[in-house]
Specification:
Layout: H1 7-13, E1 23-25, E2 29-31, E3 38-43, E4 49-54, E5 59-63, E6 69-73, E7 80-85, E8 89-94, E9 99-103, E10 109-113, E11 120-126, E12 129-134, E13 138-143, E14 149-154, E15 160-166, H2 177-180, E16 183-188, E17 193-197, E18 203-207, E19 214-220, E20 225-230, E21 235-239, E22 245-249, E23 256-262, E24 265-270, E25 275-279, E26 285-289, E27 296-302, E28 305-310, E29 315-319, E30 325-329, E31 336-341, E32 355-359, E33 407-408, E34 419-420, E35 427-430, E36 437-440, E37 449-452
Parallel strand pairs: 1-30
Antiparallel strand pairs: 2-37, 3-4, 4-5, 5-6, 7-8, 8-9, 9-10, 11-12, 12-13, 13-14, 15-16, 16-17, 17-18, 19-20, 20-21, 21-22, 23-24, 24-25, 25-26, 27-28, 28-29, 29-30, 31-32, 32-37, 33-34, 35-36
């Protein structure tokens, strides 16, 4: 790739200091075999394997011990949007409208889950069930073993972006929990979240209050509370049994992109370039983590340390209690989508702790026409997301569209796919293809790599 630094150069760049605001993190390994940007990564429960899903239409399994690629998972007909790794099986979903289950030892595809009619954004595996959300405005539950749809959840008027599940035994005393077979919570660009009874497929509650797309969602099962983050710059707390809105967290000045719930504290990353820490029970803001040069796109908490990923292409480690910046991890060139911490390789920050980090999100091509289509897209050629919005029902509020539409070019041979995006800087957008939130600068390139620090 023209202008792309060498592997050694990227690792050396990762060791630079940060001008007194925390030490610089050195890249231990860079996994760069993908031919397109990486959309997501997942660690196995035992910490031995890492799964990455890419724009090149493949997923790869890596050994966390030496960074070597163990298996190439091929079969999807379009880019991989999300992935999940178990000890013995891997799951991927794609813009080809399917979900696939893979054997992690052989790399063979074990099952193809078919039924969605548009891009599958997210999957969640729990209680021997697989849940999925799609641009077709539905969520679905599947049998992990048979690959068949066991339930379909219809009611959202726009894309389903985020999922959370609560098993029946996680809701003791709830009258609906046992007979409902657990509760599924979904967030959508229609501005609502919905609570579904898994067994019957019925909508238990509709959580209304946001005035923008719901981008992120976390669930506190002991208190049966859901926290949602939105493009309206608020976080809202909901009782998922009664549907009551409990609290509104209002101090962010931009869309809320990601949430993390730990020890009765809610951490929120925003396009306003900050992370805020809130008391989950009262909504009081107790701390603000600044120092980011762009929107905060990823959060991960571990052992008193809060890790953040940003549109400025850096990951940072903060002391979660004091808010002090401890370290800045350099090496990537563009927005970071996801951060994972391998607890089995964990050491204190001063002694070489290992953090697994991924980055991606595309390069603006020679054309900046946001209506440029891509092959393999779930929509008919030439049909934009705005054209594909569900029609407004009589007397109902107009459905909300994604804040900014960005279309990506089809893969050409061995070249990584390219995107055509709006030239406006500092715009938070859900890509029409992946629904992964990223911040777009006027021009930015794909670097299909994972860095290990």
């Amino acid at each position: 790739m023209p202008g792309r630094p060498s592997l050694a150069g990227r690792c050396l760049r990762g060791s630079r200091r940060t001008g007194g605001m925390g030490g610089g993190g050195s890249a231990l390994r860079v996994c760069a075999d993908h031919r397109g940007g990486i959309n997501w990564l997942s660690l196995s429960p035992d910490g031995r394997r890492l799964l990455t899903g890419s724009e090149d239409g493949t997923a790869r399994l890596w050994s966390t011990a030496d960074g070597q690629c163990c298996a190439l998972l091929q079969g999807h007909e379009s880019y991989v949007t999300f992935c999940h790794l178990e000890d013995e099986a891997a799951f991927t979903c794609s813009a080809d409208c399917t979900i696939r289950k893979w054997d992690v030892r052989t790399g063979q595809c074990l099952q193809v889950f078919r039924g969605h009619t548009s891009i599958v954004n997210r999957i969640l595996v729990a209680d021997n069930q697989l849940f999925s959300g799609s641009y077709d405005r539905t969520a679905r539950a599947w049998s992990v073993d048979k690959g068949q749809v066991s339930q379909e959840f219809r009611g959202h008027r726009n894309c389903v972006l985020t999922l959370a599940y609560s098993a029946p035994w996680d809701l003791p005393g709830a009258p609906c929990a046992e007979e409902a077979g657990g509760l599924l919570v979904t967030g959508s660009t229609d501005g609502t979240a919905r609570v579904w009874q898994v067994a019957g497929g019925g909508c238990w509650q509709t959580l209304r209050g946001h005035t923008g797309a719901v981008l992120c969602l976390v669930l506190d099962t002991p208190s049966h509370t859901a926290f949602t983050g939105s493009t309206d710059a608020t976080i809202r707390a909901w009782d998922i049994l009664s549907g009551e809105q409990l609290r509104v967290f209002r101090e962010h000045q931009g869309p809320v992109i990601c949430l993390e719930l730990v020890n009765r504290h809610v951490y929120s990353g925003s396009a306003d370039r900050t992370v805020k820490c809130w008391l989950a029970d009262t909504g009081e803001r107790v701390r603000t983590f600044a120092a980011h040069g762009h929107s905060v796109s990823a959060l991960k908490y571990h052992a008193g340390t809060l890790f953040t990923g940003s549109g400025d292409a850096r990951a940072r480690a903060f002391d979660a209690e004091s808010g002090a910046l401890q370290r800045v991890f350099r090496g990537h060139a563009f927005v970071i989508n996801c951060i994972q911490v391998n607890i089995y390789l964990w050491k204190p920050l001063g002694n070489g702790q290992e953090v697994l980090r991924i980055k991606g999100k595309g390069r603006a091509g020679s054309s900046r026409n946001p209506s440029a289509g891509r092959q393999g897209d779930a929509r008919p050629p030439g049909l934009s997301l705005r054209q594909a919005q569900p029609r407004q029902l009589p007397g109902a509020p107009a459905p909300l569209s994604v804040p900014q539409v960005c279309r990506r070019g089809a893969p050409q041979g061995r070249d990584p796919p390219q995107r055509s995006c709006s030239p406006a800087p500092d715009v938070l957008c859900s890509h029409t293809a992946t629904a992964l939130r990223c911040v777009l600068s006027p021009q930015h390139s794909v670097l299909p790599e994972v860095s290990v620090y």
